[in-house]
Amino acid sequence: MNPVRMQFIREKLVETALDDSEHKVDPVKPNILAGLDVLDVGCGGGLLSESLARLGARTLGVDASESNIAIANHHASQDSRLRDNLTYKHTSAETLLSQPKRYDVVCSMEVLEHVDNPTMFLSTCAELLKPSGHLFLSTISRTPLAYLLTIFLAEKVLGKVSEGTHTYSKYIKPSELIEYFQKYRSPSPNSRPWITRTYEGGLPTRTEAEVRGLVYNPLQSNWILAPRGAWGATDCNYILWVRKPGSSP
Amino acid sequence: MLRASGSKACRVIRRTCGRWSSTSASHPGEYDVVIVGGGPAGLALAGALGSKQALRETLKIALVEASDLSKVHDWNTSTSPDTFSNRVSSLTNVSQAFLKGIGAWGEVESNRTAALEEMQVWDGMSDARITFSAAEIGLEHPEEGMARITENLNLQRGLLRHIRKTPGIDILDKTKVQSITSEGTGQWPLVHLDNNQTLKARLLVGADGLNSPVRTFAQIPSFGWMYDTHGVVATMHHAPRSAFENPNTTAYQRFLPTGPIAFLPLSPTVSSLVWSTKPALASALKACDPSIVARMINAAFRLPEVSLQYLHDRILSSHTSSGTPTSDSDIRDEIRWREQSHAIDPHSAYSSSAFDAPTSSGIPPADSQMVPPLVKSLQPGTVASFPLRFNHTEAYIGEGKGARTVLVGDAAHTIHPLAGQGLNLGLGDVECLARCIETVVLAGGDIGSYTALLPYTQERYFENHKVMAACDKLHKLYSTTLPPVVWARSMGLEVVNELDSIKAALMMTAGSTPATGPSNAALNVNGGLGQTVFNVAASGFQVFATANKTMQAVQTGLTSAATRALQAAAKAATGSKGEGK
């Protein structure tokens, strides 16, 4: 799944860079994240963090599990290119909030569906961002299809994932996330909600937020980043991008 | 804090030991890609990686070659424009498009290559014939031909010149790989060279040919067999085609029961031979006087199979110690007598009487285009032969202790040369692998990891196997002299020859039509529904490959189940008998 997540991150950053400035951005520039501070919340073994670091980001990966951090550190130590700009910390996002450091990009992949208090988790991630920062979240929607694929098939029938990993009631629909960011305002004075308008059917505008489905193709055993607005694509795994409003209104 | 100081120390070490130039065994030089093998596939891969800006900026690439590449670089062609190397390949339009795309085609000396405008292929037993013409198969530029006959050295030199201009690629020639080791599962392989250098590779590419050391290291098994056939090559000189004929841009191939013989045009008066035949005859021909070989080549394209059989036996017996040596005039008289007895008109193109006559410039016989021009002489020292084999590895990517390895070209597959696809398949691999690596780099992935390289196998394995299997079956189909088979295959060939659309489709799969329009995944911001649909559809085809594997597994399972059932039945039978007693 990692290549499609990275593909989406790259596409979105190129797109917003084009929107923000008149300068032409080279879409095939390898170190697209150079000079950015990137936080990976729930980094696990560091799959995404390593990719982010390879694209030039000053990456911090945090995870609540100490053993995950040890695995991630061990894996990263085998690649000398990662020494300079990849760090892992055994801590939580809430702890980071008490420190002054803020990030250009915050990613949290496949974490939201395991969190007990999603609204608090979302606001923590949101506040860790600098103004105009990018938040990338990927998770699973709460639909019968998602139950069938991620719990019934993956856990009970095929046993690819150990039973009890996922809880259906904790899954969150994309529309619920969009609704959350339509109301959410940063604590600073005269801030606006992150999503100010939507199209008919509740889809956000391209410059504020975007939801794309991640579809597994069992024939090629790879993941596909579904096209924008593809029917039913966000009914199972999906990735959300939402941007913090700039500091000046 | 500890971590910070640690990383600082690492940086100092890297700076002081010099990252690439002075790499000793104790401090291995780290490379992102180490390519073993400086043949066409290895050089093309280095060139393809270097041609992509994203990769040029991020990857440190080394190419290791045992021989002296300056010989390839300084390969001298100024002595005479009529002297050609005996190893040539037919580069399909797809391969040419790839070489143009990476900017290497401009370095290939194009006036030493020849466009192939027509192909004539016929059955040595029945004379059933099929003709492929660039003008007929709906090419965009028929004058560019279906393929281009190119000397391998010309291609290699072009690629090498191109790479020398690309920064960031270290070429280590005159350097042998002594051993390849790994520190454990998934670790970066260490390539130990004979100059005491050690290279640590994020990705180790085996472009090192049939007996690939990289494949041995990665412990990738392969399956295949030797054909009881050797390929004889030579550079042939002949008179130019006259003003009444098509220029020398037609390739001829005749399928003899001993193997196909092919005539590949290089220039108006020079062509290249690829003659697949029995190993004994190949070595006998190499030992013969070049003039006899030239006569035998002419005969092989012209005489009926029964006479060829006799001539071959004659050459073979003269080659053995007890046999009587055969002189040039013996062969000349024998061929002349056989032409008379087959009632071949001495003025027709099927007669080799003009071999001993001065070149005439009259009106050519009506059938002059049915056979290649009469070979007058062979370029001295160009007759050579090599064994032919079929070989395909079971995987292209190494796993476990052999992780971070990938195979391209002949290291992964060896093919019968009858369709001239070997080099083209290798270049197809290279194009795909370079594209795959670029995608991974742009996504921040680790190019050495198994999952990163998986799309390469998925795209190439079945594709290569299809072409390889087709060539293998053709070789086997045409090696028989059984009348019903000859009748059926001739019938099939004649029918296909009448169906232009099928011929065009055949040529398309043989790489005559390059894909239109460059596709760049990184630019395709919205994904595109069409692309997704296509991806899913394309993967449908892959199910066939998987289904085949499944079928095999099922078959094995059923066989063992059946065996067990039989055994149980037998036991029960003997048991009841015993009880009965």
From TrEMBL, chain A:
Gene of this entry: COQ3
Any one GO MF annotation of this record: methyltransferase activity
Biological process terms in GO annotation: methylation
Protein name, as recorded: Hexaprenyldihydroxybenzoate methyltransferase, mitochondrial
Keyword match Ion transport: no
Keywords: Methyltransferase, S-adenosyl-L-methionine, Transferase, Ubiquinone biosynthesis
TrEMBL record, chain B:
Catalysed reaction, written as an equation: a 2-methoxy-6-(all-trans-polyprenyl)phenol + 2 reduced [2Fe-2S]-[ferredoxin] + O2 + 2 H(+) = a 2-methoxy-6-(all-trans-polyprenyl)benzene-1,4-diol + 2 oxidized [2Fe-2S]-[ferredoxin] + H2O; a 4-hydroxy-3-(all-trans-polyprenyl)benzoate + 2 reduced [2Fe-2S]-[ferredoxin] + O2 + 2 H(+) = a 3,4-dihydroxy-5-(all-trans-polyprenyl)benzoate + 2 oxidized [2Fe-2S]-[ferredoxin] + H2O
Domain FAD-binding positions: 30-278, 403-460
InterPro entries xref list: FAD-bd (IPR002938), FAD/NAD-bd_sf (IPR036188), Ubi_Hdrlase_CS (IPR018168), UbiH/COQ6 (IPR010971), UbiH/COQ6_monooxygenase (IPR051205), UbQ_mOase_COQ6 (IPR000689)
A molecular-function term among this protein's GO annotations: monooxygenase activity
Cellular location(s): Mitochondrion inner membrane
E.C. code: 1.14.15.45, 1.14.15.46
Pfam families: FAD_binding_3
Pathway where it operates: Cofactor biosynthesis; ubiquinone biosynthesis
Topology with respect to the bilayer: Peripheral membrane protein
Location, primary (coarse class): mitochondrion
Complexes and interactors: Component of a multi-subunit COQ enzyme complex, composed of at least COQ3, COQ4, COQ5, COQ6, COQ7 and COQ9.
Function: FAD-dependent monooxygenase required for two non-consecutive steps during ubiquinone biosynthesis. Required for the C5-ring hydroxylation during ubiquinone biosynthesis by catalyzing the hydroxylation of 4-hydroxy-3-(all-trans-polyprenyl)benzoic acid to 3,4-dihydroxy-5-(all-trans-polyprenyl)benzoic acid. Also acts downstream of coq4, for the C1-hydroxylation during ubiquinone biosynthesis by catalyzing the hydroxylation of 2-methoxy-6-(all-trans-polyprenyl)phenol to 2-methoxy-6-(all-trans-polyprenyl)benzene-1,4-diol.
Family, as annotated: Belongs to the UbiH/COQ6 family.
Full protein name: Ubiquinone biosynthesis monooxygenase COQ6, mitochondrial
Organism of origin: Marasmius tenuissimus
Chain's gene name: COQ6_1
